[in-house]
Design goal:
heterodimer, A: alpha+beta, 7-stranded antiparallel sheet, 6-stranded mixed sheet, 5 helices, 17% helix, B: mainly alpha, two-stranded antiparallel sheet, two-stranded antiparallel ribbon
Amino acid sequence: MIEQFQHKLTTSFFMWFDNFLLSKGEAYTNTTGEFFYYDDPRVDSDYNVFGSPYKQWVTDSSINGATVPTGVFVGPRSNPHNGESGRTDGFIFDFENGRVLTPTTVISGSSVTGSFAVKDFNVYFTNDTEDDLIIENKYKINSRLPSADYNYIEPYDDVVPAIFLSVAQAENKGFALGGMMDTVVQAKAVVMAEDPYQLDGALSIFADSVNEMFTSIPFTGYPITELGDLKNNSYSYSGVKEPYESNTSFYVDKVRTSKLSDKVKKSLANELYVGFIDFDLQQHRFRFS
Amino acid sequence: MAITLPPDVTAALRKQAPKAMRRGMEKEAKKEFNRIKQEMIKEFLGNPITQEILAGPDAGNISGTLGGVSNLFAFIGFDRGEQPIGPILDLFEKMTIKFEREIKRPKIGNRFRVDLPTAEDIFAITPLPWATGRSWAQGIERGLSGLGYLLRKNKGRSGAAIQSRVKVRAGKFQNSPYISALISKYKKKFEELR
């Protein structure tokens, strides 16, 4: 199937949301630290895996001050990749899983260290219902607070603190002669934070996103490869959206934020602070465009 | 045959007639307004969703929004004894019609203003019990998750909700036109008051 309106909205909304949170809230922390070797049977045997303690590093180089990694330091000295190594040395940066895939010449006992910016909130698109997200308690907490005991974070599964985005429903209403539609899409975000400060921050940023416009970006603009690295080795939201700025933008018509009340929060099994952001996104368009 | 009045007579009529007619028009307008207002309240109270919520945690799912499983009161997560319909009813009861101004041209008469609440006004006074920034009345129209039900199920505050053995999922809830449709219908009726 060729790309449809809903696909384009999903990609565009996800990329805008991530950039908006990072840029308006500086919602990241620059970190330097050790990477830990682990075995991942899903990864091609040509690579060894060294994981950081955090998932979802900042990929967007248009975020001022955020460290987007291009290399890691490898030791000891006998190692052929001794010193700083990057993509030209065959390394792959898996931003989603917070790890680096190295050539097997970087042996399991090697010391791998690096710098990167970790997001305050991971951002995921989900089809899960709010019930499943909040009640099932299935997410591992990947705390962004300093800890004495660092180790790698398991890959693939979603972790919290995180914001889960979903698109609930869409409606077309006649807008102008000639068949132009006023398309309104309801999108939702469930915010799962570690503390009330973090939650209030995220809700406040997006409460203020009303009347914002964001660029309609096709699938091909999505920056991440199947290995979690960046297409063309770098990504900047402002750079990616530039060629598409002549497209009709999406408009954030309404935003409502709310928090899971404390009296019901007590019945949850975890200690997370939960909030909701309900968006009405609007675009004037012709059907099937 | 049309009669053309002298300009001074026309001017006097334009000036004096609205004032002279005001009392009679106001009485008539209020009577008609009250009739429509009562019709609106009756329709709201007769709506199966309203009735189901009014009936509390022991009601059946007469609105059909949950496929016959549980009921809206428990699904939304209200506590037994809560009266979530009350604030909406209060707002409807408080609707008034007021004289606004005299009209002197092109036609002669009086303008009255009906303070009909908007759907947004209603959403603002109908908070979900577990997330007060969200409206349950808007949720009826746009979709509600089963979170309120499940959270109550853990605590057992809605009474009847915890007795259901069928797990109510968000997908089971069927959106339904509710407040927005009612307001839109009666806005038109009030506008047609002549």
